[in-house]
Specification:
mainly alpha, 2 helices, 65% helix, flat
């Protein structure tokens, strides 16, 4: 965790840059015709995947 004000400012700046990057990527994907799920849709799909049974390993 950040310990002083300069580290906090650097942390916030990095978080803003990451958020902007994600927004830009999402905008480009949508413009190219890809469906970008909302956060709720993403979480639901992830939950479904986690609930799938493990793949059986082939025994030779």
């Amino acid at each position: 965790m950040p310990r002083n004000s300069m580290e906090i400012i650097a942390f916030i700046s990095a978080a803003i840059k990451i958020g902007y990057s994600f927004a830009d990527i999402t905008k480009r994907l949508t413009a190219d015709g890809y469906e970008v799920p909302s956060l709720e849709e993403y979480e639901a799909r992830t939950k479904e995947l986690r609930n799938l049974p493990d793949l059986a390993e082939d025994s030779e």
